[in-house]
Design goal:
The complex is a heterodimer.
Chain A lengths: L1 H19 L12 H25 L4 H8 L2 H7 L11 H18 L26 H21 L8 E9 L2 E8 L18 E7 L4 E2 L5 E3 L3 E8 L2 E2 L2 H22 L4 H15 L1 H6 L8 H9 L6 H9 L3 H15 L4
Antiparallel strand pairs in A: 1-2, 2-3, 3-6, 4-5, 6-7
Helix pairs in contact in A: 1-12, 2-8, 3-5, 4-5, 6-7, 8-10
Chain B lengths: L2 E2 L2 E4 L2 E9 L13 E4 L7 H6 L2 E4 L7 H9 L3 E3 L4 H4 L5 E5 L4 E6 L1
Parallel strand pairs in B: 3-4, 4-5, 5-6
Antiparallel strand pairs in B: 1-8, 2-6, 3-7, 7-8
Classes of the chains: A alpha+beta, B alpha/beta.
């Protein structure tokens, strides 16, 4: 197993280094992920490990636990929180990482997406529904952009908790790419609000190729030739989509209106609720709720942790990507005491 | 003529009027086709990004959410442009050439 974990750390190092280069560690929007992890990470990792252990004790199979997560990229995203796994002893840390990898493997043909594709083992795609109408293609682009922006609000820096991009699949001589948006209700915001739909599926026939990494970052996208869009499981025509798009825009605007005065601590709480909510189905199996423990909010309210973002940014700017990759890989190897 | 550069997040080329958006209150001043210049890639600026014909930001890299979103919208987007919100003022006309990583001020 250590070989698989070493590979995991190398893939994480490679994919995260691409994120760091040129970026500002997301320091410039209302919230910094690294700071939020300080408040949330250890509580969540401890709970996740405990929940999986209990489910296994209750004789839940690998398949049954994996299916409670719903999507593999969500699980992959959890690894970005793994520096907090130090709260667990080494044996539990390794077991949790091994289990999570195993659940990803349940869904993906290549769990690490090493060749740039995220091919899901079980997938039903009807290519007969694809339509080349340029107006429909434009709506698809707009809908994708809107949903990604919306998910970044619901799950700051963790937006893969609400979507899975997968493919490309070769079906009937066509190159097919699928965008599944899920977990769309704004539960993480802690406000009275709702989103008009629970899931959106966009199926695209693409011209070239796309490239995805382990975390489901869309490294390279491609021109679309045809598209089909279903909302809440129902295939939609152009007229219906225009109406639905308007509903989505209105809903997002209303939500933004309610959260525009959120401060940094409010965003930490959004982050906390989003993460705890993402593994909700596992908790429900044990008859537990999906809210973060009160200690999380207490820590957010009472402690003031601050990292020197500017220093990190400047340091990373002076580093070559290879150096960042090496440092990141080493930091993950250290978590499992593999160096 | 000075050329400004950053990190190309989404290719494309267009000309337009600059609208600086550094707070939510400034979103409403953006009209369809404007070029949004920001120092904050917050998704709370969604509306401004959706209306923009191109996006220039002081922060972000090729895999940040704004980069992915701009590629999906097929809008030119250049990120990590140093001091962009100081350099580009409201109503300036600029050309964003994200094929060649160039931003040029056409009219001050």
């Amino acid at each position: 197993m250590s070989e698989k974990l070493i590979k995991l750390c190398r893939v994480i190092g490679k994919d995260l280094s691409k994120l760091h280069k040129g970026d500002t560690l997301s320091a410039l929007w209302p919230f910094t992920p690294n700071e939020a992890e300080y408040y949330v990470g250890s509580f969540w990792i401890e709970q996740l490990e405990g929940t999986i252990t209990k489910l296994k004790e209750k004789r839940y199979s690998r398949k049954e636990i994996a299916e409670l997560f719903g999507y593999p990229s969500k699980i992959a995203q959890y690894f970005t929180l793994f520096h907090s796994a130090k709260v667990l002893d080494l044996k539990k840390r390794i077991q949790l990482a091994t289990d999570l990898l195993d659940y990803i493997d349940y869904y993906r043909e290549d769990p690490f997406c090493e060749n740039g594709a995220n091919i899901l083992k079980k997938q039903i795609i009807d290519v007969d529904l694809l339509d080349q109408n340029p107006e429909l293609l434009k709506i698809g682009d707009k809908l994708t952009a809107l949903m990604l922006l919306y998910l970044e609000i619901l799950y700051p820096t963790m937006m893969r908790l609400g979507h899975e991009f997968h493919g490309p699949y070769k079906i009937g001589g066509k190159n097919i790419f699928v965008k599944d948006f899920h977990n769309l209700q704004p539960l993480s915001l802690g406000i009275e609000a709702s989103f008009p739909f629970n899931n959106i599926k966009i199926v695209e026939e693409i011209e070239g190729n796309v490239e995805l990494d382990f975390f489901n970052h869309l490294v390279k996208s491609s021109k679309k030739k045809a598209i089909s869009i279903s909302i809440n499981g129902n295939q939609k025509n152009l007229k219906e989509l225009k109406e639905d798009l308007e509903k989505i825009e209105n809903s997002i605007n209303q939500i933004i209106g309610k959260i525009k005065l959120f401060d940094k601590k409010d965003w930490f709480k959004v982050y906390a609720r989003g993460i705890f909510n993402s593994s909700c189905k596992l908790n429900l199996e044990l008859g537990k709720d999906c809210k973060p423990p009160k200690e999380v909010f207490k820590k957010i309210d009472e402690e003031n942790f601050s990292i020197q973002i500017e220093k990190i940014v400047q340091l990373n700017k002076s580093r070559a990507m290879e150096e960042i990759e090496k440092i990141t890989t080493m930091s993950f190897l250290k978590i499992f005491e593999l160096i | 003529m000075k050329i400004y550069k950053g990190i190309v997040a989404s290719e494309g080329k267009c000309k337009g009027k600059v609208k600086k958006v550094t707070s939510i209150e400034e979103i409403n001043k953006v009209e369809e086709g404007d070029i949004v210049v920001t120092n904050n890639n917050s998704p709370l600026f969604s509306l401004a990004f959706m209306k923009a014909s191109a996006i220039i930001s002081e922060c972000g890299g090729t895999l940040c959410h704004l980069a992915i979103v701009s590629r999906e919208m097929q809008k030119p987007c250049i990120l990590s442009v140093e001091n962009a919100t100081e350099i580009f003022k409201d109503n300036m006309i600029v050309e964003v050439d994200a094929f060649n990583n160039q931003i040029i001020i056409i009219k001050k």
